[in-house]
Amino acid sequence: MAFVTKIKWVVLSVITLSVASIIIHLSLAKLWTVNIVPYRAIASFPADFSPGLGRQVVKNKKLWGSIKSLEALQPSSNARSNYSDPKDRSNGFIYAKVFGGFEKIRSSICDLVAISRLLNATLIIPEIQESIRSKGISSKFKSFSYLYDEDQFITYLKHDVIIAKTLPESLMERRKRNEFPTFRPTSSASPNFYIQELLPKLKKSKVIGLIISNGGALQSVLPPTMAEIQRLRCRVSFQALQFRPEIQMLGHRMVNKLRSLGQPFLAYHPGLLRETLAYNGCAELFQDVHTELIQHRRAQMIKDKILNEDLNVDSHLQRDKGLCPLMPEEVGILLRVMGYPSKTIIYLAGSEIFGGQRVLIPLRSMFINTLDRTSLCSEKELSDLVGPETPLPQNIFRSPPGKSEKELKEEWKRAGPRPRPLPPPPNRPIYQHEKEGWYGWINETPLEPDPSPMDLRMKAHRLLWDALDYIVSLEADAFFPGFNNDESGWPDFSSLVMGHRLYETASSRTYRPNRKVVAELFNMTRENMYHPKHNWTVLVREHLNKSMSEEGLIRQSLLSKPAMFLSHPLPECSCRVASANVANRVRGEDGQLLYGGEDICPKWMQHAKKPSSGKEGVKSEDDGLPDYESNDFVDESESEKNGGKTDQTLLWDQDEEMDPND
User: Fold this and answer.
1) How far is CA 297 from the centre of its chain?
2) Quick one: how many helices (H) and strands (E) in the chain?
């Protein structure tokens, strides 16, 4: 009896403690969630929000200063004295269909103009296939004018090539009947291919068509005798290809809003694209359905012979080789190591970020002022940019059709020899949320369905979003690429931005990290990324500072220029002020100059200051690590006492602002 009583008291005590625990947890949960506000994008800034207007923006030279040794480089893409206007009578017309996203379109158009000059042909305004009427765009635009200013394009290049908006009526009818030859040049096609193969056909038929889907139609590196063709590429990309006025106005309005915050800002492009991740075998860096989607696209690339590798590869090994993008979490840590405080304004570029907002959570937690176009533009501004569009038919959800009793009996008869197993249980109902989204097909079929009308329209919209991001990235005080210059040979957004910034202002702060080196650095502290040692932070700073300097530019040129000329338009499209020190001449594998062979700038450009000696970005004679001060990971004196071996610090302790007078 006594034993039973004890058991009852024990049970009663356990129940009492459980109830008390539940009450305490509910009370704490209610207390903690009072000030929690769910994240949502800011539709627009208030009309009277201008905290930075009227005051000078003070930049910290360690984080925002220019790169001294590159100040001698100035933009110079004008034709030289031996360059003549196009002949009045051309050899024929070239029309082209351009496939791909923003970066492929821009690179392909530059090549088309160069080819037209090479063949003395009249270029018809290229047809951008992502923005044709059948893709559901506004009826007020044609394909090219959806993104670029046609009149500016034609007028600026009138001394280089003859450009027409359409073929003459008689030739247009023949084109509809497919009477003209059509070619699919590769991105590595040589000038000899066009002169020897296409020029005779152009003279014979008077019209040829080109279909460009690889992001280019002419090899990147040309012989020295064709330097004027290279400069023509620069003039097309950096002057002639201007976005239509509505895009430019909204883009500069976004820049002004960022400037009005009263501090410099950094633009960051993650480069997390499904195509890129699939090509380089980076599926295992993601989870759940995203891994399956990457592998599905990789399998399709192998089937289409775009890729000649195994389907399953070790993504972590690919990352160690530098073939995978830097994840936003890693970029956030690198920027904090460099000394950027948590209140730094970071503009997030890119119309597509594979993995969605989930992969951005660590970056947003480290930098609370992470903005994108939806933070700077209202829905009305973006809608006005798109223009009036015809409403698409609603995608009414329909559950899969059920099978009749007769069909079920036939299946039962064909089920195999007796004794037969019990029939499977009835299928569970398909809920609507399982079919919504562009990945709803993956659990049902191995084949990816054709894009819906809404998918096609969204692809066209991405061209506009990338154009806005391009404008902001060019104007940013610093730019950090999450991924650029892979081994696919395709143009990428970050490379275009880096090349344009190099052309316009070579001394601007543009990071060029070596992803292989960065992967090695993270492998040293992969299990302890948020408590790094002082020695590790020194190595990171040294690498990133060198990547912005002349040393990093030279390393990047060896990789980027053979793949895409616009990513490194040197030395053809730049000049060097006469007062500057002579740079080291760097040649590629083919013996052509990649850096250091620039012409001397004209006299009116000689105002540029003579660059200081020493390695900039890392430290000069009086530049040392103590200048990072409150944003440093560890106290310098404390590190010296302990030999720099065991000092650790928490990443989140770096929230103090840097001294603007440093």
Assistant:
1) 19
2) 23, 16
